[in-house]
Amino acid sequence: MQSNQTYRQLKCPVVDICGGCQVQHLPYEKQLEQKQKQVIELLKAFGRVEPIIPMKDPYYYRNKIHATFQTDRRNRIISGIYQSGTHKVVPIDSCLLHDQRADKIIVSIRGLLKSFKMRPYNEDTRQGLLRHVLIRTGFESGQIMVVLVLGTHVFPSRKNFVKALLEKHPEITTVVMNVNNKKTSMVLGDRETVLYGKGFIQDTLCGLKFRISPKSFYQVNPVQTDILYNKALDLANFTGNETIIDAYCGIGTIGLIASKRVKKVIGVELNNDAFKDAINNAKRNDIKNVFFHNADAGEFMIKSAKRKQFVDAVIMDPPRAGSSDDFIRALAFMKPKKIVYISCNPVTLKRDLEKLTRKGYQVKNMIPVDMFPGTAHVEVVALMSRVDE
Questions:
Q1: Which positions in this protein are listed as binding S-adenosyl-L-methionine (predicted)?
Q2: What is the domain-level CATH number for residue 370?
Q3: Are residues 90 and 239 in the same domain?
Q4: Which one is catalytic: 21, 206, 249, 344?
Q5: Residue (of 282, 283, 227, 275) closest to 256 by Cα position
Q6: Residue 120's Cα: distance from chain center in Å?
Q7: Residues 60, 12: contact at Cβ < 8 Å?
Q8: Residues near 177 by Cβ (< 8 Å), separated by ≥ 6?
Q9: CA 166, CA 160: separation in Å to the nearest integer?
Q10: Are 228 and 132 in a shared domain?
Q11: Residues near 71 by Cβ (< 8 Å), separated by ≥ 6?
Q12: What are phi and psi of 367, to 5 degrees?
């Protein structure tokens, strides 16, 4: 392991039934050992895996908290997280991973539902009001966004409800109403109404300010994200003359952070809300050398390759499913000197590294970062270079 630090060990009362934490029952040192072993087993064919970078205090780190609301057998309103493999809610008042401010707000909302004689939404009968609450918090800014996800657009006494919530929690920055009346596992629907504040929050990461909307992708662990992104850019060792692509760029985080180390950044993002936030984030940080495109990363790479628009490096941070074959083919055709691959799924990372090594790339570095203490998930940053460079 990378350090001999000892970590405090907190116990969760619902760890055996909740679907959120797979390894919370283990001491943190054991969690790290397990993740290191997993990554080595998967990626050892590509070279040496560096020691995993731990989190100094592996609790209360999540800045995005989602609670589902239901009624129990006694008709009491409960809120919490789905039991693993079911649609049954495990009632919780606090979680060892959540920003503690968020959990307190969720408990207050549960009490307000009772006071206002409102019922949680029932997916089977399609009756009731509140389905979910999504809370996003700013680690540096302290700002808090509360998203009330309703099963209907009719929200009686909404002004009084929001007023009562703000009286209990004046620290809330903005409240948004989101309507999701579809039978779906997706939390957020398409329709949004701002009930209080601006409808977004701002936070600081690696010295830059970022706007975060309800649907924006933003890493859930700000402390480890700062470490992850700086480690990724240090590995890339840019000279300042490069043109790079930031694929799957989200709200522009790593591309904007990289902008001071390179000549030009081209960011690509499919989600329209995140794309708009990315443009806004470039403006609010007065960054002029980053250009964003609202497109599928794979399709954009193919079009760029066909136009013979070549770049020096590509930073890619794909979803858990990894990259598409089309994207990897286009990437190989463009022949960037370096690829910085940030992965939240070592299994799909292995698959994609195999494809890229067959197309003329060699893995130079692999560093796991514990972004999600208490869970089985682990992030890995890998640096690849063209063999002929």
A1: 219, 248, 269, 317
A2: 3.40.50.150
A3: no
A4: 344
A5: 282
A6: 27
A7: no
A8: 147, 148, 150, 155, 158, 192, 193, 194, 195
A9: 10
A10: no
A11: 77, 78, 119, 120, 122
A12: -130, 115
Number of domains in the chain: 2
Annotated binding site: 219, 248, 269, 317
Question: Which residues are known binding-site members for S-adenosyl-L-methionine?
Answer: 219, 248, 269, 317
Domain containing 89 equals: 64-205
Give the domain-ending residue among 155, 170, 205: 205
pLDDT tens for the 389 residues of the chain, in order: 445 577 778 888 888 888 788 899 999 999 999 999 999 999 999 999 999 999 999 999 999 999 999 999 899 999 999 887 788 899 999 999 999 999 999 999 999 999 999 999 988 888 889 999 999 999 999 999 999 999 999 998 999 999 999 999 999 999 999 999 888 878 999 999 999 999 999 999 999 999 999 988 888 999 999 999 999 999 999 999 999 999 999 999 999 999 999 999 999 999 888 899 899 999 999 999 999 999 988 889 888 888 888 899 999 999 899 998 989 988 988 899 999 999 999 999 999 999 999 999 999 999 999 999 999 999 999 999 999 75
118 and 163 belong to one structural domain? yes
Does 107 share its domain with 253?
Answer: no
Does residue 301 share a domain with residue 199? no
95 is catalytic: no
Is residue 216 in some structural domain? no
